[in-house]
């Protein structure tokens, strides 16, 4: 239901948009009249021979399933829809010990890339009065969405399964646990790998529902063109399911099967794909280049959890001693089990400080692996940036990054006239893209300190930018009252991103708007400055503690 105020606002917008043609106003615009839904255009349908399905495309990656959840029987609390966990239907307990946050500490917001996405405030980045609602005097004409898959199991070989093996080995010799660790005596490892969890499916479905509610009117543009959109994703099983769940939320079931073409791009080593650039960017995994963040995050974790480790080690006897690596593994089990099974007995082992340090562990990892502290993040985000520019420029994008020219050099696979674009990808790629787009307001402050811990001097927080189902939105707007009618702005998880300091020519604007042509020219310059071949393949050495603006040092 719209509030009556919102109805008036909606009506005002409608009147504003059509005021020039007021004399010829059609019956469909008469107040109170009903208009029929016009999407999809007649005689259109998805084309599975041009856009083949997951089994035809192949390259789904590993797909080990997990064991079934049984929260109704085993969870310590029922997932009431008015309970303390803001991410229904997850159950999130309060941390161990006394909390300065009272009993309102939402642990799920301190899980870095394992957090469920939550609304971020524009004020966090310097636009205290901005709203993601279309600014008054403007109407939206085009929308571009880059979004991440929802909650998944751990990736293959991640810390939780290693920890489970360690516990199983100790159990064969025999160990005893007491107090809050008692559950470990009977704990079993239930997680699969790589796949979306039920909650993860819901996140992408709900995002589709939300975007249909917010922007469904833009579908009328397809009706005028007599075409249906192409939405893109990668071939990994969770990526295909992500795009399908998003489309199911957006178009409905079974309409999503016929009202959109889902393009599945192969994700595998050596194959170009703007949604998986690390597959063709050799330096992305080199310790002294693309994975500085993993190293400094592990260094930080070595000292961050001592008090809790001492407490937990005092509650176990036998051949089992918990290390800093295990602290991270158990915190990850808290996140992954909650995201997959609905709750986790590992969560209440950790204090508020532990969760704050866990978030900072992810902050370090992402700032230096895929943010401005990485020498190879802008290069990896360049493919998406070039595609973004190409869509607005109505030209084939240049083949000088990870994008796949075979597809992008074809308006069938890479249409240039859509009013709605939706691309699914991974969180690392979302962050690479935000870096490539030079959104420095998201990383405002000195490089993150990995020795003393979180100094709180940088705006970057991983769970705000790279959580499950994170989404980066471009709004193209028509604002007749402005000097330049065509305007553009950017939103990440509901926070409007200021661009006046980072995009030459963009004025200071409380709504984050910039004239369209000014932005295209600023981002074209930025794209031209990013040297994919050098950053991804050259032999240079980078170090933590720098803000490289996502690009390789050249000296
Ligand atoms: C573990 O399982 C055993 C056997 O079912 C049971 O007796 C014991 O109470 C359980 N321990 C805990 C801590 O749940
Ligand atoms: C583009 O994608 C196709 C199909 O997946 C693949 O065969 C080709 O190798 C890719 N191009 C490049 C340059 O990686
Ligand atoms: C934390 O424990 C590690 C050993 O795991 C030790 O080297 C380090 O000095 C301790 N740090 C603090 C701050 O106590
Ligand atoms: C565990 O407790 C049992 C029963 O008290 C005892 O027999 C056994 O030695 C203990 N094992 C360890 C490793 O502490
Ligand atoms: C104790 O654990 C360590 C490491 O987990 C392992 O290497 C060792 O073999 C274990 N000792 C026994 C007696 O099982
Ligand atoms: C935009 O299109 C023009 C020609 O219409 C072309 O010269 C230019 O390189 C294109 N820019 C980008 C970023 O693709
Ligand atoms: C697009 O692909 C066709 C066929 O591979 C090729 O002939 C043409 O040069 C390509 N155009 C561009 C702009 O890359
Ligand atoms: C549909 O959207 C595209 C992209 O914004 C735009 O170029 C075109 O003019 C629109 N068509 C109509 C009829 O609004
Ligand atoms: C419009 O242009 C005028 C004159 O150049 C300038 O003073 C004013 O600030 C501009 N307004 C906006 C909203 O950019
Ligand atoms: C990126 O933003 C910074 C401000 O944070 C600015 O100094 C720089 O010129 C921008 N780079 C480009 C290529 O626009
Ligand atoms: C990269 O540069 C370093 C330092 O100059 C040198 O030691 C190393 O051999 C070079 N590696 C390659 C593969 O060229
Ligand atoms: C971290 O802070 C410490 C203490 O202020 C300082 O000595 C160190 O240089 C800082 N490191 C980085 C990478 O900023």
Automatic annotation (TrEMBL):
Q: Which UniProt keywords apply?
A: Hydrolase, Signal
From the UniProt annotation, give the residues forming the signal peptide: 1-20
Coiled-coil portions: none
Which molecular function terms from Gene Ontology are attached?
acid phosphatase activity; inositol hexakisphosphate 3-phosphatase activity
User: Which Pfam family, giving just one, matches this sequence?
Assistant: His_Phos_2
**EC numbers on record:** 3.1.3.8
The record's section on InterPro entries has: Acid_Pase_AS, His_Pase_clade-2, His_PPase_superfam
Q: Which family does it belong to?
A: Belongs to the histidine acid phosphatase family.
Q: What is this protein called?
A: 3-phytase
**Organism of provenance:** Baudoinia panamericana (strain UAMH 10762)
The record lists the lineage as: Eukaryota, Fungi, Dikarya, Ascomycota, Pezizomycotina
């Amino acid at each position: 239901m719209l509030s009556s105020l919102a109805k008036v606002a909606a009506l005002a917008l409608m009147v504003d948009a059509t005021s020039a043609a007021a004399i010829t106003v059609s019956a469909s615009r008469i107040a109170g009249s009903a208009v029929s839904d016009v999407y999809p255009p007649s005689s259109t349908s998805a084309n599975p021979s041009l856009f083949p399905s997951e089994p035809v495309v192949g390259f789904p990656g590993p797909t080990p399933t997990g064991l079934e959840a049984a929260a109704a029987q085993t969870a310590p609390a029922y997932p009431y829809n008015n309970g303390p966990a803001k991410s229904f239907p997850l159950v999130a307990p309060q941390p161990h010990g006394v909390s300065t946050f009272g009993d309102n500490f939402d642990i799920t917001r301190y899980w870095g890339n394992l957090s469920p996405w939550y609304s971020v405030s524009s004020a966090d980045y310097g636009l205290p009065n901005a709203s993601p609602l279309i600014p008054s005097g403007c109407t939206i004409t085009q929308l571009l969405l880059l979004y991440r898959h929802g909650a998944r199991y751990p990736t293959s070989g991640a810390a939780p399964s290693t920890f489970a093996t360690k516990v199983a080995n100790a159990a064969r010799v025999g160990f005893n646990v007491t107090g809050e660790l008692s559950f470990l005596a009977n704990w079993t490892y239930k997680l699969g790998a790589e796949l979306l969890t039920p909650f993860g499916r819901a996140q992408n479905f709900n995002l589709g529902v939300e975007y249909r509610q917010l922007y469904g009117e833009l579908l009328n543009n397809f009706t005028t063109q007599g075409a249906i959109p192409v939405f893109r994703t990668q071939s990994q099983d969770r990526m295909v399911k992500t795009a399908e769940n998003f489309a199911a939320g957006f178009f409905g079931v079974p309409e999503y099967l016929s009202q959109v073409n889902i393009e599945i791009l192969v994700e595998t080593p050596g194959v170009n794909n703007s949604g998986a650039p690390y597959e063709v960017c050799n330096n992305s995994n080199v310790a002294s280049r693309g994975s500085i963040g993993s190293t400094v995050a592990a260094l930080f974790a070595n000292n961050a959890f001592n008090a809790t480790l001492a407490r937990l080690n005092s509650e176990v006897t036998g051949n089992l001693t918990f290390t800093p690596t295990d602290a991270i593994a158990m915190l990850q089990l808290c996140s992954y089990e909650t995201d997959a099974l609905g709750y986790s007995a590992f969560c209440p082992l950790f204090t508020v400080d532990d969760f704050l340090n866990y978030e900072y562990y992810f902050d370090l990892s992402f700032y230096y692996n895929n943010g401005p502290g990485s020498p190879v993040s802008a290069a990896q985000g360049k493919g998406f940036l070039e595609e973004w520019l190409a869509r607005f420029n109505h030209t084939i994008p240049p083949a000088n990054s990870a994008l796949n020219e075979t597809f992008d050099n074809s308006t069938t696979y890479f249409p240039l006239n859509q009013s709605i674009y939706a691309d699914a990808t991974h969180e690392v790629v979302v962050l690479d893209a935000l870096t490539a787009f030079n959104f420095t307001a998201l990383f405002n402050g000195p490089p993150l300190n990995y020795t003393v811990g979180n100094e709180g001097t940088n705006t970057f927080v991983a769970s705000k930018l790279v959580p499950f189902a994170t989404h980066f939105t471009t709004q193209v707007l028509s604002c007749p009252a402005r000097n330049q009618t065509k305007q553009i702005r950017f939103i990440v998880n509901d926070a409007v991103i200021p661009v006046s300091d980072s995009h030459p020519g963009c004025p200071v604007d409380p709504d984050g708007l910039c004239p369209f042509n000014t932005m295209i020219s600023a981002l074209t310059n930025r794209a031209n400055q990013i040297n994919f071949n050098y950053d991804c393949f050259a032999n240079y050495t980078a170090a933590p503690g720098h803000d490289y603006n996502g690009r390789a040092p050249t000296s």
